[in-house]
Amino acid sequence: MQYFHSKLNIIPLVAALLLGSCAASESQLPPEQQVAIRAQERVDALMSGNPELALEYTTPSFRRSITPRSYGARYAGAANWTGASVQSVNCEGETCNVKMVISYQLARPRIENSRFMDQVWVQVDGQWYIYES
Fold it and tell me: Is 49 within the bounds of a domain?
């Protein structure tokens, strides 16, 4: 019985090690994959009506220059988007160009439409951020 009990004590340790390795492995992904993940997370935050979270994906210098309310006003229509996805990411050095496709419903005539959105992402202190001005 003692042997079984000691096995249960090791489960949290193994879980912590596995979770830690997942977090570490994201930073080991190629820049294109890191940026694609962050770009999708950001657009998902905008679509869910959470501009405060989306703002966290902007460069630190940009965040110091804008309020979450002002940032939300920039993307007020994002909550009406019906879909958004990363189409391509091309990186060179510490800069990546991202092409997203945004889908939305037109009021009249009632049809679904899509458009491309180009973004520039930059690396600051080892993390990728969308560059906005």
Answer: yes
30: Cβ contacts below 8 Å, ≥ 6 apart: 91
Helix (H, G, I), strand (E, B) or coil at 94: coil
DSSP run (H or E) holding 40: helix 31-47
Q: Where are the alpha helices (DSSP H) in 31-128?
A: 31-47, 51-55, 60-63, 68-74
CA distance 79 to 133: 22
Domain count, the chain: 1
Looking at the domain assignment, is residue 97 inside a domain? yes
Which H/E stretch holds residue 19? Answer: helix 2-27
- Please indicate, yes or no, whether the overall pTM of this predicted structure exceeds 0.70: yes
DSSP conformational letter for 103? E
**Residue pLDDT, tens place only, 88-110:** 999 999 999 999 999 998 877 88
